[in-house]
Amino acid sequence: MLPTIERTITQEIIENYANASGDFNPIHVNKEFAAESQFGGTIAHGMMVAAMISEAMMLAFDADWIKSGRLKLRFKAPSFPGDTVATFGHIKSMEVSNQVQEVKCSVGVKREDGQIVITGEAFVDSHSPS
C-alpha cells in the first residue's frame, strides 16, 4: 500500500490554488456562476486534487519520485468545498532493466462517500545500487 494523504477541501484552499496557478475559471472561484453550472457550486481544481497523489508518491519514493516520477490520470468526478478526499494506491509491478527498476503503481483519490475522483497510474524509476 502507498501512503494515504487526506485533506478536507475548502473554498479558501481552492482560491489559494487559483492564485498560485493563475487558473481563475469561474467554476472554481465564482459561487454565483458555479451555482448555475451542472455541479451546482464551486469545485476544486482537478490538478490541485491530483497533487495529493504526487505527495503520496514522494513519501513512498523520495528523491526517485522527484527525478523520474510520472502520472497518467483520469479525472472521474469533481471535489467540492467540504469534501474530505484521500489518496489510495498500491504497487502493481516492478521491472528491472539496465540496473533501473521501473515501479508501476495504481493510484487514485476518492471522496469520503466512496466516490472515485481520480484514477490512474504512477511510474517511478528506482536506481539499483551498483
What does this structure look like?
The protein is an alpha+beta fold. The protein is 32% helix and 36% strand. It has five helices and five strands; from the N terminus they run βαααααββββ. The protein has helices at residues 11-21, 26-29, 31-35, 46-61, 63-68; strands at 6-8, 70-75, 84-97, 100-111, 116-127. It has a five-stranded antiparallel β-sheet with strand order 1-3-4-5-2. A hairpin with a 2-residue loop joins strand 3 and strand 4 (100-111). The two termini are 27 Å apart. The mean pLDDT is 95.
Q: Report low-confidence residues grouped into runs of 5 or more.
A: none
Percent of sequence in beta strands: 35-45%
What is the mean pLDDT?
95
Q: Main β-sheet: number of strands, strand sense, barrel status?
A: 5 strands, antiparallel
Distance between the termini: 27 Å
Query: Biggest sheet, strands in spatial order?
Result: 1-3-4-5-2
Supply the number of helical segments. 5
Output the radius of gyration. Answer: 17 Å
**What is the SS-derived class?**
alpha+beta
Shape: elongated
